[in-house]
Write a structure and sequence with these properties.
- By secondary structure, the chain is α/β, with parallel strands linked by helices.
- It contains 10 helices and 13 strands.
- Helix 3 crosses helix 9 (239-252).
- Residues 1-23 form the signal peptide.
- Keywords: Signal.
């Protein structure tokens, strides 16, 4: 009886040890870093909102739709740095962080500023670009908006969840916000009297005015409280992943303004 019990206990002990060992091996096998997972997959999945030229926008090349922009040039360099291909997921700006948090994308490269609120939802890279924001109005009413007080109770169009929205709320708390998803929609809203003004960065303003000659820049320019545009990565991303991204930014940051100028020629009026 005692020997039989001993054999049963020994067998159970062996089974338990074997199961524990296999589980440990499986667990260790799954402990890949963020970068190792991307390299194993062979593709870097990047989220952006291709509606803010010259940073990211749709371009028709002989009838074939392409996404171009200065941010895409940066994506290409980052993917090359990691020795992987890249895949673009285009979506509305306010859908980017939820997509990152749910694991649908590996990073966001869409001129996104690392605000305090966003830093709760993502890890951010070094800043790679910073511009100034400017109010754009109908050219026929340009003289009306010579002073900030004219915007006090105005209807101002901005991209939803953008830094320009935060700037408007900070400096013009009584203004009526018209939140839209694309920069072209902002221009149309102002041109068609659905908004009094829009707030965008200077390069975007120049492109929108070129496409909509009835609009004009005011002299009302505002810097936001953020450091500038950075790349968003999932919370608790591994150090090697963040290092790879920051290394690429350090290497190519000086070329970013040149890419902006180069991409302007692809933006159609």
């Amino acid at each position: 009886m005692g020997k039989r019990v001993f054999k049963i206990i020994s067998a159970l002990s062996f089974t338990f040890i074997l199961m524990f060992s296999l589980a440990a091996c499986g667990s260790n096998g799954d402990k890949k870093t963020s970068l190792e997972k991307i390299k194993a997959r062979g593709t870097l999945v990047v989220g952006l909102s291709a509606a803010t030229p010259p940073y990211e926008f749709h371009y028709s090349n002989n009838g074939k739709n392409e996404i171009k922009g200065a941010d895409l040039e940066l994506v290409k360099r980052i993917a090359k740095q990691m020795d992987v291909k890249y895949e673009i997921k285009d979506m509305d700006f306010d859908g980017l962080l939820p997509a990152l948090q749910s694991g649908k994308i590996d990073m966001i490269v869409s001129a996104m500023s690392p605000t305090q609120e966003r830093e709760k939802a993502a890890d951010f890279s070094k800043v790679y670009y910073k511009s100034t924001n400017v109010f754009v109005v109908r050219k026929s009413e340009l003289s009306k908006y010579a002073k900030p007080s004219a915007l006090k109770n105005a209807t101002v169009a901005t991209i939803n969840s953008s830094t320009q929205q935060a700037v408007t709320q900070k400096y013009f708390p009584k203004a009526h916000l018209k939140l839209l998803g694309k920069s072209n929609d902002l221009a149309l809203a102002v041109a068609h009297n659905k908004a009094d003004a829009m707030l965008v960065d200077v390069p975007t303003a120049e492109l929108l005015i070129r496409a909509n000659p009835s609009l004009a820049q005011t002299n009302l320019k505002y810097n936001d409280d953020t450091a500038g545009a950075a790349i968003a990565m999932p919370n608790h991303s591994s150090k090697d992943f963040k290092d790879a991204v920051n290394t690429a930014i350090t290497k190519y940051k000086g070329q970013y303004e040149k890419w902006i100028i180069e991409q302007v020629k692809y933006v159609k009026e």
